[in-house]
Design brief:
single chain, 295 residues, alpha+beta, four-stranded antiparallel beta sheet, two-stranded antiparallel ribbon, 8 helices, 8 strands
């Protein structure tokens, strides 16, 4: 996304101009250089490939032969404008998405290079994760997974997590354990020796990442967006949909009701087993209600 005007940089408001993915990357590298000789924590939240994906540098659009898309004009109806930009109306929509991904990948590469140049790559714990699955209306592709952002289908909640910390974790390993972003905090606390609060939902991922344990010992994971609720235990997932989430931005049918999926054999959530597996369904529903009551 293009940015021109005030932006908060740490505790100071500065006038900046440029492509915000590059601005975030530049600030992150500057932070690394300033803090290379002491312990630090850096939370780098790129907003690519978030909307508005059409906002790309002019030279990139020219290089790729893309005509571009005009920003919202004063007085223009937002949803009418947005509809022309979103899937499937814009023939360049997927190209814009890939453009954002290109710049994101490039900045992550520069960040890793900076750690290498400062001699920090082998001693820094790096956790890479997305906050949600790809948004189909902005031309993301979630492969075989159903749905995307805004829903509690796997396309909306299942994302890659990549962790690197050579001193403690095995390299080149792929784990099938079901982790959550809730687990990042206790994992960092474990690595740094920080104490944990008495009540915590997340779990330390270190035993799995180090190879000491094969899988994470977890009973349930819960989600609640008001429009939808979900609970997962092992291979089973119960989804309760009350109303279509973000209807104007959702292109996947989301019928109301209760749905039980075996994610091991059906990661695309094509077959509802709520009737055939009533014992499992009721167990998950009781757990969901108990969780809700305890909030």
């Amino acid at each position: 996304m293009l940015h021109e005007g005030p932006m908060w940089v740490q505790r100071e408001q500065k006038d900046v101009e440029g492509f915000i993915t590059e601005l975030f990357g530049e600030l992150a590298r500057e932070f690394i250089r300033k803090n290379k000789d002491r312990k630090f924590y850096l939370h780098l939240s790129f907003n690519a490939v978030h909307n508005f994906t059409h906002q790309l540098p002019a030279d990139y659009l020219k290089e790729k032969g893309l005509k571009g898309f005009a920003d919202l004009k004063p007085g223009e109806n937002y949803w009418a404008w947005r509809k022309k930009l979103g899937y499937p109306a814009n023939v360049e929509g997927r190209d814009y998405y890939l453009g954002q991904l290109h710049f994101l990948d490039h900045e992550i590469g520069l960040f890793m290079d900076e750690l290498e140049e400062q001699g920090l790559a082998e001693s820094t714990a790096i956790i890479f994760v997305s906050d949600n699955g790809g948004s189909l209306v902005t031309y993301a592709n979630n492969g075989k997974l159903k749905g995307g952002k805004y829903t509690l289908f796997e396309g909306g909640t299942r994302v890659p997590m990549i962790v690197s910390y050579p001193p403690a974790f095995k390299t080149g390993e792929v784990s099938g354990s079901v982790a959550s972003t809730l687990d990042i905090f206790p994992t960092i606390c474990g690595l740094t020796g920080a104490s944990l609060p008495s009540r915590l939902d997340g779990k330390d991922l270190a035993p799995v990442l180090s190879g000491a344990e094969h899988s994470l010992n977890r009973d349930f994971l819960f989600w609640d967006t008001q429009a939808e609720q979900a609970v997962r235990k092992g291979k089973w997932k119960l989804l309760v949909t009350k109303t279509t989430p973000n209807e104007k931005l959702q292109i996947t049918p989301t019928p109301n009701g209760e749905f039980l999926y075996n994610l091991e054999s059906d990661p695309g959530e094509a077959t509802n087993l709520v009737v055939q597996q009533q014992v499992v369904s009721q167990e998950l529903k009781r757990a969901l209600l108990k969780w809700k009551a305890g909030l």
